[in-house]
């Protein structure tokens, strides 16, 4: 479902317009000067409206009608909301003139219009045929108005889109997904002139409101751990925004809720890390017994990772100490008689998996494939440095064990 402007062949919609305004020459008097919009759903035009610009940042909704088979589905309310957003950048007030009809009065009041003024005997003076409703002749034209008050503020739209992009980028989304989401949100709220420049750790957005006023904002996004559940929630919200189901205020509130989404329970993450260690170790050639040891090491390792995150310890320290923990526990396992002849490489290769930045590495490759070379390179370097940190921790521990403890590599 989308709203599109009709610039040509407006007369093709005359039959629909006559349902709301029964005199053809009255429609023709404002059709050429007004701007026509159509609500299209499934390739069919379900509703149309005509808006005419007035003086002093005012406009008038001259005609709005929904196809008979589509009435009662909320199309007219949706269209009014969209055109109010559209004209909110250039107008302060929107008027609509209606007959003294309770049904129409109630409908527009639900859309936020209030009483403005009355033109007495308007329909009696300007229409050749009398207009009746429930057997009563309608004569006066009642004008209602709605204060748009720049209903769509470019700054507010850009801030909303930028916040959605920040949350996506922070939680491991690809560059193209962040760019697509920001652009989709801006276009939905009629901010058509928008440019984005996105890096792995920063977002630059510049937008125009169609009146030669530009708004530019930059947001730094430090590299952090991923949360694909949050990415999925923001994606779902952006689709609802694009479909017109969510307004700016509600979208801002929901983004705040999404950003506060907690991670899985600590015990669940520890168990998942252990299972990942054990199964990956087995897939990479470890024996069943070595995989069981890797499961236990992975659990102990992730307890450390969770504690370190809680205290905001540097990623370098987390991974170096993680490598030390893995290797130390693997060495201890070698000296437990009940485990028999287990090999250190089989235990270590599975245990390091919770530290491996697989998602960051894949996203780096994808960014480079999409020609986002700068972002892809930064992410690739960050992932490679994690590998280096782990290797430093493992290598240091093995060196101490061999040189000071007199250990024997098995």
Uncertain spans:
none
* Count of discrete structural domains: 3
Mind describing the biggest β-sheet?
A: 7 strands, mixed
N- and C-termini, Cα separation: 66 Å
Strand fraction: 15-25%
The SS-based structural class is: alpha+beta
Topology:
Layout: E1 2-6, H1 14-20, H2 24-31, E2 35-41, E3 44-53, E4 58-66, H3 75-87, E5 93-99, H4 102-110, E6 114-119, H5 122-126, E7 131-133, E8 136-138, E9 141-147, H6 154-170, H7 175-188, E10 193-198, E11 202-208, E12 214-220, H8 228-242, H9 248-259, H10 266-283, H11 288-310, H12 315-334, H13 344-351, H14 358-369, H15 373-403
Parallel strand pairs: 4-5
Antiparallel strand pairs: 1-2, 2-3, 3-4, 5-9, 6-9, 7-8, 10-11, 11-12
Helix pairs in contact: 6-7, 6-9, 7-8, 8-9, 10-11, 10-13, 11-12, 11-13, 12-13, 12-15, 14-15
Briefly characterize the structure.
The chain contains 15 helices and 12 strands. It has helices at residues 14-20, 24-31, 75-87, 102-110, 122-126, 154-170, 175-188, 228-242, 248-259, 266-283, 288-310, 315-334, 344-351, 358-369, 373-403; strands at 2-6, 35-41, 44-53, 58-66, 93-99, 114-119, 131-133, 136-138, 141-147, 193-198, 202-208, 214-220. The longest helix has 31 residues, at 373-403.
Q: Which features would summarize this protein structure in a list?
A:
410 residues, alpha+beta, Aminopeptidase, 7-stranded mixed beta sheet, 3-stranded antiparallel beta sheet, 15 helices, 52% helix
